[in-house]
Amino acid sequence: MTPTPPPSPSPRPSVDRPWAMLATVCLAQLMIVLDATIVNVALPTIQDDLGFSSSALTWVVNAFLISFGSLLLLAGRLGDLVGRRTIFLSGVVVFTVASLLCALAPSGGALVAARFLQGVGAAAQASVILAIIVTNFRPGPDQARAMSAYVFVSVAGGSLGLLAGGLLTEALSWHWIFLVNAPIGLATVLLGRRFVPRDRGLGLGHHVDWAGAALVTTSLMVGIAAIVQVSTHGWLSTPVLGLAALAAVLMAAFVSLERRIAEPIMPLRILTVHGVVQANAVRSLLVVGMYSTFFLGTLYLERVRGLGPIETGAAFLPWTLTVAVLSRGVTTRLVERFGPYPVLLGGMSSATVGLFLFSTAGTQTAFFPTVFLACFAIGLGIGSAFQPLLTIAMAGVPRQDAGLGSGVTNVSQQVAGALGVAVLSTIADDHTAGLVEAGGALKPSLVAGYQLAFTVAAAVAATGVLLAAVLLRPRPVSRTEPIPTLETA
Q: Per the database record, which ranges form the Major facilitator superfamily (MFS) profile domain (predicted)?
C-alpha cells in the first residue's frame, strides 16, 4: 500500500493585525534576550545567597545555554510538524513557569535545574519566531520592517538586560530578575492566543524521525557542554576533548541517518538552499564579536574602571540607541536603495572598527570618545548587517521548512556565541595569568588580556567581512531570471 503523504502545510494565514502579532513575538524574544544578560549582573549576589562555589556558579549560566542551544533545531522542526503557534505558546508557558521556579529556588541545585527548564522553554519559543515572521509578512518593505524590529529586540535587549539587572538587584533582590518574567510571560501568552495566527503543521503521524531528533539534540547538547567547560578545564583537558569527540561522533551518525531515511527530522536539502549556510557562517563570525563585547566589555568596565552594575549597563546605551534608530526603517531604506550586499559589508566593517577600538582601551581610557565610539560603531554595524544577513538566510527556505530554517539560524548564533565567549575569555585569562606570574600588576595585566581578546575578536569580524565579500556577492543572472532582491538573494 502506498503510504499516505503528510498533509501540506496550510497556506499563508490571514493576519488581521500583523503588527500586533509582530509585537507579541518580539515581546517573547525580548524576554529571552534580557534573561541571557540580566543574570550576569546578579551572579555575585546569587553566589553569596545560595552558597555557590566559584566553579559551580558558572552553571547558573551554562545550564540555560546548554538546553537552549541544543533544543533549538528540534523545536524548530516540531514547529513545522505540529504548528508554530502551538510550539511558540508552549515555550512561553514553560519559560514563565521556570522563571518562577528560579525566583523561588531554595538551593543552588534547584536554581540550576530551573535554569535548564528555562532554556527548554526559551528554545521552543525562539526557534519559531523567525518562521512566524517570514510566513506572515509578504516579502517586501513590510517584511523588512518586521525583520528590523526583530533585530532591534535581539541586539539591544542584551544591553538593556545589563541595565535592568543592575537596577533590580540593587533596588530589590536577585529574585526579581526572574520574577519580572511572570507578568511579561502571562501577557505574551494572552496576546499570542489573540494575534498569532493558527497554522496547520505537516503532522506527526508515524513519519517522525525520533532517532534523528535524539542524535542531533544530544550531539548539540554535548558539544555546547564541551565549549562551556573550556574556561574551567582548558582546551586540551580530558573533559573537553572527550565531550567534543562524542559530539562529533553523534553528529556524524545523525548526518548518516538523515541521508538514508525518507522522512528525516532535518532534511539535508535545507543546507543546499542558497544563502542558508553562507549567511549563517558570516553572521556567526559577527556574533562572536557581539557576545564577546557584552562579556569582556562588562568585565573591563567593572574590574578595571570600577563601574557599578547600573553604570555598566548605561555604558552600552550608544549601542542600544544606535540599533533603535536603525530599526526605525533606516536599514530598510538603505537596503532598498543600495541592495543588501553593500549594506551588510559596510555594517560588518563598522563592527570590526568598534571591536578594534575596544582593544585600545586601557586603565585610564575615558568613556568618551574611545568606549563611546566603540559601542556606537558596533551598534551601527550590527544594526546594519543583521537584517540583510537574516533575510538572505531565510529568503530561499521553502515555506514548509521555515521552522527548520529558523532553528538552524538560531543554533548557529548560540553555538557561535558560546564558542566565542569560551575562546576569547580563555585568551584573556591565560594572557592575564601569564603576566601576573611574571610579576605584573593585576589591573594592567587584566587590561592586556582584554586588549588581546578584543584584537582577536576584531580579526574574526574582519574575516567575516572577507567571507561576506566572497560568499554573499550577488550572483549574475541571465536575461530570463528575475533580478535578485533582498527577498530572493
A: 21-476
Are residue 159 and residue 221 in the same domain, yes or no?
no
DSSP state, 398?
-
The DSSP secondary structure of 182-236, one letter per residue, reads HHHHHHHHHHHHHHSPP---S--TT---HHHHHHHHHHHHHHHHHHHTHHHH-TT
Residues 395-452: pLDDT tens digits?
888 877 887 787 788 788 878 887 887 788 888 888 998 999 999 999 999 999 999 9
CA–CA gap between residue 55 and residue 128 (Å, rounded): 34
Count CB atoms within 10 A of the CB of residue 189.
18
Give the position of cell 551588510.
344
Could you tell me the three cell numbers for 415? 553555538
> Which structural domain, as residue segments, surrounds residue 382?
267-473
Distance spanning both ends of the chain, measured CA to CA: 42
pLDDT by residue (tens digit) across 295-325?
788 788 888 998 877 787 788 889 888 887 8
Shared domain check, 276 and 260: no
In a domain, 73, yes or no: yes
Asked, for residue 459, whether it belongs to a domain, the answer is yes
67, 78: one domain: yes
Instruction: Determine the Cα–Cα distance for residues 250 and 244; give it in Å rounded to an integer.
Output: 10
Residues 122 and 240 placed together within one structural domain of the fold? no
Number of domains within the chain: 3
The answer to whether the beta carbons of residues 48 and 57 sit under 8 Å apart is: no
Same domain, 76 and 173: yes
Half-sphere exposure of 290 (CA within 13 A, CB side): 32
pLDDT, one tens digit per residue, over 334-354 is 988 888 899 999 999 999 999
